[in-house]
Amino acid sequence: MTDTQYQYIDGDWRDGDSTDETTVHDPAAPEEVVAAFPPATRAQATEAVSAAASAAESWGETTPDEREALLYEAADRIEEDLDALAETLTREEGKPVSSSRAEVGRAAELFRFMASYARTTTGETVPSSDPETFTYTVREPLGVVALVTPWNFPVATPSWKLAAALVTGNAVVFKPSSETPTVAKRLVEILDDAGVPDGVVNLVVGPGSTVGDEVTTNEAVDGISFTGSTTVGQHIAEAVAARGIPVQTEMGGKNPQVVLPDADIEDAADAAVSGAFGLTGQACTATSRLIVHEDVADELVSAVGARAESLSVGPGMDDPDMGPAVSADQDETNFEYVDVARDEGATLLTGGGRPEGLESGYFIEPTVFTDVDSGMRIAQEEVFGPVLAVMEVSGFEEAVRVANDVDFGLSASVFTADMTRSRAFARQVEAGVVKINGTTTGSQIQMPFGGMKASSSETKKEMGQRAYEFYTHEKAVYRTDP
Ligand code: NAP
Ligand code: MG
After folding, report:
1. Which residue has the CA at smallest separation from atom 18 of ligand 1?
2. What is the three-class DSSP state of 87?
3. What sign for the dihedral angle of Cα 430, 436, 441, 446?
4. Which pTM does this prediction carry?
5. Which tens digits make up the pLDDT trace of 276-316?
6. Residue 466 C-alpha from the chain's centroid
7. Would you state the pLDDT for residue 165?
8. Which CATH fold would you assign to the domain 255-436?
9. Topology of domain 7-251+457-480, per CATH?
10. C-alpha distances in angstroms, 354 versus 28, 321, 324, 375?
11. How remote is the CA of residue 150 from the centroid of ligand 1, in Å?
12. Is 284 a catalytic residue?
């Protein structure tokens, strides 16, 4: 391990000043260390915020063309680095390498998409009640924004935040997950190479409890975009509530897929399996509850069970259907929930164990429980692993009631041939993303993204036009002729 400089502050790559060491292990082969470096201290996080504060004004005054050009350049460089970045992502996080490649490709797409906002998004002219007063609105950068991200989409999630923050003229302090620091470092190196001025993007890698706390509570920070667990997101939102700065928190999910009797059962089974087990269930929009009408439950459950059993599991570099869990902690959580579900009286249909021949990595078989009731923990708590809870219902109203009977409200799907029913579902379900005959996972970048209830700070969505709005102040200007 030669390169230990994971901190990028005011245009300089540095070692962390902490005397601790952060190590990242390959989740498919935990004896292999893929990164080892000293993390940042709180004081370095403070320095990073100050560097951003010093750079914010001149960056905010660049022309839209300059910011647009920089984002296009970053997109090109991300694409040039696609193979290497995807491999790093897989070694650090574990996902199948084709998924990593898709994620890196999406990051480039995100930079290009947000680049297109540089020149096209404008304020409004508003009819004035006074002929001598011209009334219009303008959007201005917030100033310094803190971006705090999880490990599960460690390239795409930072990219959609970075691209949106930069195109709108903000300076950034980026605090990635300690589980996936190397892809974060690589992404920032690419931005540096693309020509981001010193201080405009700063990277601090260290524990959430110190470095994360500093970048979110420092008073020079003018906005926060957080993605991660509900516990941490709510803590951050509460900690800064009194300051009234824009805070965006994208958090957990317990996403339902509802299957009605007139659904295409093969399609519904494919979607449930892909939604539950794709990315090892480590997507905030992963399908974790399959709510099925009793008339088609047997047929659907046997189709889902057969598909789950046919999935290949293995090291991400072999490009299986499903890779390992990200870490020892998540691995432990997955097996704990298998025990919890069994103890609560759910029936294990398939999975629940370590796959044969994969004893050393953080692997688990795709797992399906049936006979799940809404009161069980397996029906209420986010596992963030490949564990699907099947719940039977006897009608549409009950399906919606069960779907809504959780704290979360991120994504929800319904499979039905009845378009009137599907519209009723879209109206009644408590979720920020609704899919009709589609998986709970996956989103298009031009659509707003975010949830309801404990899943998101609802008014502040990400992606699309909403991203532009989040990262800017809106001012209403009244200009009266002298
Ligand atoms: P996490 O534990 O909440 O961590 C997220 C980030 O917050 C990490 O960078 C973490 O740093 C940092 N952090 C921790 N404590 C902090 C504090 N007190 N102040 C400031 N920052 C702090 O989440 P995770 O385990 O990385 O990711 C899994 C979770 O993310 C799941 O719940 C999943 O549902 C959610 N998620 C949501 C979405 C969405 O869009 N809704 C998308 C993806 C994932 P360290 O971990 O380095 O200490
Ligand atoms: Mg964590």
Report:
1. 209
2. helix
3. negative
4. 0.97
5. 999 999 999 999 999 999 999 999 999 999 999 999 999 99
6. 16
7. 98
8. Aldehyde Dehydrogenase; Chain A, domain 2 (3.40.309)
9. Aldehyde Dehydrogenase; Chain A, domain 1 (3.40.605)
10. 12, 16, 10, 27
11. 4
12. yes
